[in-house]
Amino acid sequence: MEEKIVLDSEDLWRTLVRIAHEIVEKNAGSEIAVVGIHRRGAVLAARLKDLVSELVSAPVPLGDVDISFYRDDASTHTQPVVHASHIDFPVAGRTIVLVDDVLYTGRTVRAGIEALFDYGRPDRIQLAVLADRGHRELPFRPDYVGKNFPTAREERVNVRVEELDGVDEVTISQPQEGARSAPVQDRRDADRDNPSAGLEAPRG
């Protein structure tokens, strides 16, 4: 597949700084926490947590959730790679900023919200994503968006982060001319087959 860089490391950093400022401005006076969806959403959430904490000069709780068994299409997959969830603070009464890397169909977000409710009922849940590629199947709209990337369904949005992949970047992969397009899969399908993979494929 041909691959084009659409956000480099500097772009990604500036994008997260902007989102952190937007979170602080939108939630003045509110008790907030940041929760990331495994895997790369959890990495981005940790970075946002540090940025927001610095802006408000106070610690901000951080958590992460694995949504493998909350997806409504989980029965179509076998042997998912499961990561432990960590939410070590009260969820009730807080505004939770749920963080993921790529917003696609909306199914990952729905699963993330269900996972959160297992820990309590927050006052509000806000959604922050690094990339919104469209093609929604469920009616979710993010509160904070790094960048909108209009894509075709056969294209792949690849998010790489230094902590997992050795580089910070977002790329879009396009099928080579004449190549047959494989069915669109969720990124977590690729992670199940190869947990060390560095691509963030089309996803929910």
Explain this structure.
It is a single chain. By secondary structure, the chain is α/β, with parallel strands linked by helices. Helices cover 28% and strands 25% of the residues. The chain has helices spanning 9-26, 40-56, 107-117, 162-165, 187-193; strands spanning 2-7, 32-37, 62-65, 95-103, 124-132, 144-148, 156-160, 169-174. The strands form two sheets. Strands 3-2-4-5-6 form a five-stranded parallel β-sheet, with helices on both faces. A three-stranded antiparallel β-sheet has the order 1-8-7. The chain starts with a strand and ends in an 11-residue tail after the last helix.
Give a brief description.
The protein is an alpha/beta fold and 204 residues long. It has 5 helices and 8 strands. Strands 3-2-4-5-6 form a 5-stranded parallel β-sheet, sandwiched between helices. Strands 1-8-7 form a 3-stranded antiparallel β-sheet.
